[in-house]
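Reminder to self: tokens first, then the designed residues, so the page reads top to bottom the way the pipeline ran.
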């Protein structure tokens, strides 16, 4: 079969470093070769949550469009949770592919079987796995929030992605790092704010910043998705 390989990572740090994306792509290549399929296109969502709808994920939207137009026979992912981390989005996405005669594969479990009224366990098992991924995501978020709340009470940097425009400073009396202003990144933020006021798109901003030699924290060039959260905060 001709397949579109779909790759997704949730954090921009993973996207900038290529961590996760490269691992997923390598596993899909190996699986496709072993199972005599051809990956004719790669669709990526970098730094985008699996809880977002397909319409909010350019890469997934592209892969679904290719199935709808008949450019590919299906979609392959490294794990089903790359397709979605919320059950109703998983089921809706599978439904779109199946509606247009496509097939979905995951490297870890093979073909995702369509619903069969004579085999209700097939649907039950798939949905339980999807619900488990959703539960895991919620539990991880809960632990992170609790941990950050405790660190915030002690003062200083509470963890997570380091805000653009700041660096880690010295430790405070609680042993936590304070944040210090990064002058170069602060200038870049001012440029981004000006471009936002001028109505530039995220893609236009990314190209302009890259051309000007302005860099994000963990990459050599800007991408529209790495700008989305920054622009939203301005």
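Designed residues (234 positions):
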């Amino acid at each position: 079969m001709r397949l579109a390989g779909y790759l997704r990572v949730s954090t921009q740090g993973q996207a900038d470093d290529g961590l996760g994306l490269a691992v997923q792509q390598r596993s899909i290549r190996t699986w496709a070769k072993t199972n005599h399929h051809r990956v004719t296109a790669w669709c990526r969502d970098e730094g985008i949550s699996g809880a977002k709808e397909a319409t909010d994920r350019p890469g997934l939207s592209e892969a679904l469009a290719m199935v709808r137009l008949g450019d590919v026979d299906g979609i392959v992912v490294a794990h089903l949770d790359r397709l979605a981390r919320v059950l109703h989005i998983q089921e809706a996405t599978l439904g779109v592919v199946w509606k247009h005669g496509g097939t979905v594969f995951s490297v870890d479990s093979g073909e995702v079987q369509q619903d069969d009224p004579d085999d209700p366990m097939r649907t039950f098992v798939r949905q339980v796995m999807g619900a488990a991924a959703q539960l895991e995501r919620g539990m991880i978020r809960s632990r992170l929030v609790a941990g950050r709340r405790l660190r915030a009470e002690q003062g200083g940097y509470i963890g997570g992605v380091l805000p653009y425009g700041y660096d880690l400073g010295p430790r405070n009396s609680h042993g936590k790092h304070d944040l210090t202003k990064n002058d170069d990144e602060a200038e870049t933020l001012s440029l981004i704010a000006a471009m936002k006021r001028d109505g530039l798109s995220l893609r236009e901003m990314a190209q302009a910043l890259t051309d000007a030699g302005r860099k994000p924290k963990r990459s050599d060039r800007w991408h529209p998705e790495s700008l989305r959260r920054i622009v939203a905060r301005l």
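Residues 161-234 form one domain.
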